[in-house]
């Protein structure tokens, strides 16, 4: 039985095409991400957004409906949310955070 398994394994390996793939990851796309400096922090019913001057903060329900949109005018801005208790998604550009309002 062992001899059969060994022979069948060898035959399968011989029949399989050998391909080579590159494991090199180009760091250039990672360096182009400019949203890494944007932070979203929850403090009670307020949100502090840093590094997003000139961009919009979207408050989205879990069903995907955009509830509110706030324009961020300063480098470090506090936004008071008038939301009921629950889970929401906050999005600024490509930075997305799921938050729970208590």
UniProtKB/TrEMBL annotation:
NCBIfam families: Por_Secre_tail (TIGR04183). Keywords: Signal. It comes from Xylanibacter ruminicola (Prevotella ruminicola). This is Por secretion system C-terminal sorting domain-containing protein. The keyword Signal applies. Residues 1-20 form the signal peptide.
